[in-house]
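Here is one chain, start to finish.
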Amino acid sequence: MSSRGNYRVFAIPAFRSLMLGGVLVHIGTAAQSLAIGWEMYVRTDQALMLGLIGLTQAVPMLLLTLPAGYLADIFNRRNVMVAGMIGTTLTSIALAVFSHSRGAIGWMYMLLFFDAAFHRLAGPARTALLPQVVPEDQFEGAVKWRTTLFHLSAVVGPAVGGFIITQSVTAAYLFSACTTIIYIVLLCRMEVPDQAGNPRGRMVQQVMEGIRFVWKSRVILGSVSMDLFAVFLGGAVYLLPVFARDIITHPPFGLSPQEVLGWLRAAPAAGSIAMALILAHMPPMRRAGKALFSSVAAFGVATLVFGLSKNFWLSWAALFLTGFFDNISMVVRHTLVQLRTPDRMRGRVSAVNSIFIGSSNELGGFESGLTAQLFGPVISVVSGGIGTLAVVAIWLKLFPGLRKVRGLMED
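Its structure:
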């Protein structure tokens, strides 16, 4: 693949708008996520409260993602995204008001619930819209660049958030609201091709159709389920406020705990950017299955190292490697799901995929917080890394066909 060919997807105006708006929202969301985690831990001094953030965000994910996938297949996907972004704008503003007035913790969690609900409304539509605006022969490259930009924003977001919350936690929520407003404007100005339609009024049947499709596709089922269990066990992000304030000793350059948190939160995304840039300048994968299993195993090892470290630089490097290797599995999984699914079903299949991903992130955060509360944060992270390695070994036996996948666009 030529260097020029690596960038030709940016010639598509709708792709540029999606990427610009997505980057801004990811930066704002990362800053808001950093703020809410810090505020909850400082106000309560309990690791369990960090886990409850994940649980609060997981409930709407479990309840609403599949119906959102149905909506993405029967309604205009851009309009569904705009509705979701309007909702997240309002919840971010409300979080700012409650944070400034030191409102009740219970109400803060309720606002997080609605914020997650609106994100879930827009999620499947956003994922299904990408192959609608990008030709199939450029789609793997589009996924690589989307992943690169997503992780770039995940580096910038915590860095920006760490700086903002040292001045004002409330300002981080308002910053997030501003980014979603800009995304709404970009979406409203974007030209989108017509999508394959589906008859309305059969939500349960059509949702079940998407579930059956994933269940029958062993390659898709294996890839998304391995990610679910690996990240569920190996995620350490929700516990970073604990490590930043209580475990990492003698941070360099006189960094405050808030700044240490920002740097640690940015490390996985920095690793993902490094890998994404490598992948974006490489030809299409030829041994995608083997790359998937190897990357998830390496993610588990890096998580284990982070859990055992008290040194800032070693901890940062370990988190960097979690993002570095997680990027490979993300590219493989997203490309497999989108290119091996008919357009008329992409919203529902994306919703099923989102449930797997959301379960691994939000419920994994609750599991990490609960384990940390009972046994300590170090045991929580170390046991998760070991569990991730066990998942890889089990999935090699359960899904031998997944390991044999070569090109991502091959049937």
